[in-house]
Amino acid sequence: MFQRDVETCPREKLEELQLERLRETVERVWHRVPFYREKLDGLNLRPDSIRSLADLEKLPFTRKSDLRDQYPFGFFAVNREEVARIHGSSGTRGKPTVVGYTKGDIDRWAEVCARAIVIAGGRPGDVFHNAYGYGLFTGGLGMHYGAERLGATTVPVSGGNRSRQVMLIQDFQPRGIAGTPSFILSLAEAMEEKGVDPKRSSVEYGIFGAEPWSEAMRRTLEETWGIKALDIYGLSEVVGPGVSMECWEGKDGLHIAEDHFLPQVIDPETGKMLPEGKYGELVFTTLTKEAFPVLRYRTGDIASLSREPCCCGRTHARMSRIKGRLDDMLIIRGVNVFPSEMEAVVLGLMELSPHYRLVVTREGSLDCLTLEVEVSQAFAATVGGTFDPGTEHYGRLNSHLQSLLKDALGVTTEVRFLEPRSLPRSEGKAARVLDRRGGMSTGVNR
């Protein structure tokens, strides 16, 4: 473990620390962030109103729209001159959300990311191939600082340029790799194109996140690379990567760094707390952030919580893997559909490749969903080598796939087969949804 005393802290002692830090956080925002001062005053709350962790439920929620309304620096709890770094979202749906870090924030961020890498099986001295994007996106720099804090040899390769990355993996012999699952999968494809078997590489563990991915994708990554594929969770509004990490031993939920982040799961409609094991919207309150503390930030991610002991010995709460995002959810003829649910079906068929996208169109007043998916090269070869989706073999596969999708999703989905290697490959987050409603053609980054 990276910090054994912290990671195995008895629950009672951990909750004492959380309460102390929660009070400090409420004190900070009440005095320094006008938005929170107004919200807390409206609820007749003061910092001394927080007497137990149960009082967390009294505090106001924070939404992404609140952050955008205060753009760029309205949520900062320190003078702008004390901010050592600024990160932000892509801003594809309007103004970006802007987050700030003091030097102390960056130090604590490096700490939780180093902890995450160790949870995944990393150790000092590893060569660590970091294929997360660098820039305003928090993924690249977060993992970079964590790897350096751990004492790993960090390769800051970022995303894209698959051919060069293949060369670096062969030459530098990394033990760990990090990136979005869709990009790391396409990287394996690039290796195979060069006649290199990913299973024969030096990589032993992969830290994947920044987009929802299914258990089927995990199996595909592990079988393709011959590694342990592990899930990391984070978001810039809370800190970036390092909020939680799946462990090498258990692969059964992501250990939350509860000494820094206080989790809840709520009913997204009512805002009421849900019991352990129930899926709902994940909410986080930061406990140690100086520049950008947030109270009860609604992430939009669907997950559940558990405080059951883990075989690895860590005592912090675990969150389930993300089932989907509320703003990614498609409503097709009254049925809620998450792209990750479709991914599990696609990756369960050997006749298909793991490269696909969903196309949403509208016929009259009804939305329609089409799955565009590449067939595997092996399947194309077994049915004559010529791509012809009008043949009997393709027709049977189409009917079978539609039946599986209907059972899994509860909604009829059209299927369109594509030639192998015909879809654009991910250079970072995969664009899984193409929204063509209203006469517009819009790629949505999922």
Q: Please, could you describe this protein's structure?
A:
The protein is α/β, with parallel strands linked by helices. Helix content is 31%, strand content 24%. The chain folds into two domains: 1-325, 3-Layer(aba) Sandwich (Rossmann fold), CATH 3.40.50.12780; 330-444, GMP Synthetase, Chain A, domain 3. The chain contains twelve helices and 22 strands. A hairpin with a 2-residue loop joins strand 18 (352-363) and strand 19 (366-375). Helix 2 packs across helix 3. One of its GO terms (molecular function) is ligase activity. Pfam families: AMP-binding, AMP-binding_C_2. Residues 334-437 form the AMP-dependent ligase C-terminal domain.
**Number of DSSP strands?**
22
**Within the CATH hierarchy, at the fold level, what is the topology of the largest domain?**
Rossmann fold
DSSP helix fraction = 25-40%
- Low-pLDDT stretches: 439-446
Shape by Cα distribution: globular
The termini sit apart by 33 Å
**SS content category:** alpha/beta
Roughly what fraction of the amino acids lie in strands? 15-25%
CATH class of the largest domain: Alpha Beta
Count of helix runs: 12
CATH architecture of the largest domain: 3-Layer(aba) Sandwich
Mean pLDDT, nearest integer?
93
Strand order, largest beta sheet: 4-3-5-6-7-8-9-14-13
Largest sheet: 9 strands, mixed
Q: Write down the Rg.
A: 23 Å
CATH superfamily of the largest domain: ANL, N-terminal domain
- Count of the separate structural domains: 2
